[in-house]
Every structure is written in C-alpha cells, then in structure tokens.
Here is the input.
Amino acid sequence: MGSQQLLLLTVGVIIVFSALMFGIDMFVAQAVERNRDAVVNDLHIIANSAQQYYHKLDEQGGGGRVFTGFKIPTQLTANQNGTYTIINTTPNTIVFQGVGVEDSDSVMGCSSSSEKVTYRISVTADESTLHQVY
Here is the structure.
C-alpha cells in the first residue's frame, strides 16, 4: 500500500508542476502580446500626429505638406509600453520605431535573449504601413 501512495504522490507532484509551468508560459505570452498591442497602438497615435503635422500649415505650427521638422511629442517618446524614435525622415515619408519593454524571444523563438518587441511604421500623407521587426 505504501508504494502505491508514493506513486500517486509522485504523479500528483508532476501534474502540479506541469500545470504551474504551463500557467507561467501563458502569463509570459499574454504579457508579450499586451506589449505588442500597446506598442502598435502608440505607433499609430504617433503616425496620426505626424499626419496632422504634415497637413497643417507652417503658420499654424505644422509642416506645410512636409514631414521635415516633425518631432515625436515628449510624452510619447517613452512610456510604460516602450520607447519611440524617428528612424528616417524625408519630405514625403517618415518612419518611426517602437521598442517595447517585453522580451519577445521566450514566446516567438527569436535567436537572442535580448530582443524586445519591436515595430516600425512608415507614414505618408494619407496612409501608414506597420512592419514587425521582432
């Protein structure tokens, strides 16, 4: 009778350990996914701000139909979701990059342990195109 109880105890410990590991993996995956969504949302807000700048006249504090001179609003350069920078600016196109706070390697299988959730968005006068980097 003692060996059967020991076997049941061992099986129980294995099941509990497996459930715990599965729960931790799910939590990490959800954290990364929330960070991805937040970074994408912030980039769309920045892109919208850049398009407003583009369409606004020089006299009104805008770009006068060029992106040159646009700066990311101070409150959006860094927040709890990540950091945001301008990668490239031409008169008709501007590219922003958002780097999240979560490591993407544990969920997405990236090669390095320090790859963060990263997206770029290319913005023109009337459209924006989102690209995932990591």
